[in-house]
Amino acid sequence: MKLKLATVALGAVMAAAPAMADLVVPNLSYRTGPYGANGTQYADGFNDYFTLLNERDGGIGGEKIQTPECETAYNTEKGVECYEATKGSGALVYNPLSTGITYQLIPKVSADKIPLYTPGYGRTSAKNGKVFEWVFNAPANYWDGASVAIKYLLDQNGGDLNGKKIALVYHNSAYGKEPIRTLQELSKKHGFTLTELPVDPPGQEQKSQWLQIRRDKPDYVLMWGWGVMNQTAIQEAANIRFPMENFIGTYWSGSEVDVKPVGAGANGYKALTFHGVGMDYPIYEDMKKHVIDPGKASQGGQYVGSVLYSRGMYAAVVIAEAIAKAQELAGTAQINATQLRDGFEALDITPERLAELGLPDFGPEIKMTCDNHGGSGMARLQQWDASAGKWSLITDFTEPDQEVLDPLILEDSEAYAKEAGISPRC
Amino acid sequence: MEFLYASEVLANGLMAGVMYSLVALGFVLIYKASGVFNYAQGVMALFAAMTLVGIMEGRVPFAHLINAAFGVHVSSFGWTVPGLFAILLTALIMVGLAIAIEKLVLKHLVGQEPIILFMATIGLAWFLEGLGDVMWGADVKVLDVGLPQGISETVETMTDNWLGYGFFIDRLDIWAAVIAAALVAALVGFSQYTKQGRAMRAVADDHQAALSVGISLQFIWIMVWSIAGFVALVAGIMWGTKSGVQFSLSLIALKALPVLMLGGFTSIPGAIVGGLIIGMGEKLFEYFVGSMVGGATENWFAYVLALIFLVFRPQGLFGERIIERV
């Protein structure tokens, strides 16, 4: 009996495990817990792009891609468990969609020599590839976003923010605190007053913060929120009649999930993004033909085209391009994690290449090198149209203020190198 | 002007306190009747709100499972249900849930230590959380039963005319206060003046003694869990209207804990007074002290406030003093 059970168990494990010849890109996702509504859409986009490559092209370089999912529930401990459980399967790269998990995984991936790709989240100073050999965060990070938001406000005010009041409403966590240093530097440079208003997670109760905003009457409000904090903040802003066009969220405060519960009150709200949104891209014809119509889409494809789906798909696009580049450099389709790092460091996704992929003008050019793991940092703004129920892009991709950001990144990464005993490379 | 700002913060704190009390009430009811701290109360609010939205929007429950099992693409029945009728249907489902909990869980634990019952409610919370997701999906759902939201212009104009500064009061909070007052009046009347209410209190004192005088434990537990389910539905509607129906709604239970500690686990008016003190205290502390200590003080200060009260009244403001003779 024991032998039979063992045989059945072994069979189940073998069926669940990726075939040895496949390229393995674990999907550390979260479909449950307080942030499950966000994580689900991202995970679907991530899965569906690899399914498209498998179904349409037979994988990458003839190798199929497996994306075994592991549920983290946005919980750091579970995220680390997922990493430990999957790294032995030949994992090529991780994208955990959590700054907390990223911070825990940085020393682990550095020891195990597996790339960690954290677009728009994670440790900002990981952009410095001289220190963070295994971490990549192109096309944009938190500080890029903060700078692009201020650049936009400069544009709106004839290049002068002197004397203006800007409030930052942020998730009281490592993630939410990320832009503070940058915004403080930018406030010195441009002469605006910065008020910091932390909100304890999950953030369902924000009356104090919004009463203060009502009293202080800042000219603009920036938000670094996630999950229910976003919906509550946008609702409270609508409640106090704060002009929505002066309210700008970061990348993670600008999805349909954040604005729809507020209804018409959210009209005009703006958010940063580092990619396109909606279905007006040729890639969706292929997605429909090869993934959605044959019933192979993750969860039936119900979120195709949404902001977070698009972001998950974009992360998969960048990883797939890095894999293809690594295969080209290594001269073999069966690459390992170290070869994928080389692929990332030689990656150049040009506008022409994006158009070939069916995603014209979807993202900025991504060019990474040994010392630059963060790309150009370009981001753009989108605005919510409540009556149409969709986001519209309202600016072109804008470069952040590297003059302010570069010294900050250098300072933070060098401090990490000292602490971790890392000798800078490149 | 500073005084007026502080008064506005105070008024909003009281309103926030009412919202906390709505959650705390469900805990009190079950604790009164069974001596059990129902860990699942927050998840019950989430489950009730998800079910309400599902019914209102005509969603097919377990659609994902059905689609996966039969290879179909069903998601909606194609009809919508009016809010009031959907609330009634949801209340019935919460009664069904109460019956199931009694039959499958509580019945088997009669006479057990309270900690065993508490552990059972932890299991129940996990189960309901998963059941809700599987039934209705994990997406953020918009709940609109017609409750108004946004600044009350009447209050703003009145205070502006009288005091020279227009106060912000959310219309949803005003509705919450009215609904909570009605709910408390009904619950106090029920527990003090009806036969079932007195039986409920007898069961809370001693299961075995209540059984020996002919009180049906089964009926009382079903009744109490049904009422707690209805209170959870009301809390779910209020919080769900505010920020959408999503998993985080279950975490509002964390806001109810200091209210219970302060008001007492066995007092319905205590849940309301406790909520008001916590709401008012945390908002005023944030206003006067928050900026000096980096802000975001509300979550922890609520517990500090409750602990300070506990030092002087361990049973809470309105809790029953328990004297156990050896």
Gap between N and C termini of chain A: 58 Å
Strand coverage percent of chain A: 5-15%
Q: Which structural class fits the helix and strand makeup of chain B?
A: mainly alpha
What sequence of helices (H) and strands (E) makes up the elements of chain B? HHHHHHHHHHHHH
What would you note in describing this structure?
The complex is a heterodimer of chains A (426) and B (326). Chain A is α/β, with parallel strands linked by helices and 426 residues long. Chain A has 2 domains: 2-140 and 279-377 and 407-420, Response regulator (Rossmann fold); 142-273, Response regulator (Rossmann fold, 3-Layer(aba) Sandwich). Chain A contains 15 helices and 15 strands. Chain A has helices at residues 2-16, 36-57, 76-86, 99-112, 142-156, 174-177, 180-190, 207-216, 228-239, 256-259, 283-292, 307-330, 337-345, 351-356, 402-420; strands at residues 23-24, 27-29, 65-66, 69-71, 116-117, 135-136, 165-171, 193-199, 220-224, 247-249, 270-273, 348-349, 366-367, 380-385, 390-393. In chain A, helix 2 (36-57) packs across helix 12, helix 3 packs parallel to helix 4 and helix 12 crosses helix 13. The longest helix of chain A is centred in the C-terminal third of the chain and has 24 residues, at 307-330. The termini of chain A are far apart. Mean pLDDT of chain A is 93; it is low at 5-19. Chain B is mostly helical and 326 residues long. Chain B has a domain at 26-252. In chain B, 70% of the residues lie in helices and 0% in strands. Chain B has helices spanning 2-34, 41-56, 63-70, 83-104, 114-136, 153-163, 171-193, 195-205, 207-212, 217-243, 253-263, 268-288, 298-312. Chain B starts with a helix and ends in a 14-residue tail after the last helix. The relative contact order of chain B is 0.19. The mean pLDDT of chain B is 90. The chains are: A alpha/beta (426), B mainly alpha (326). The interface between A and B is large, with 40 and 47 residues.
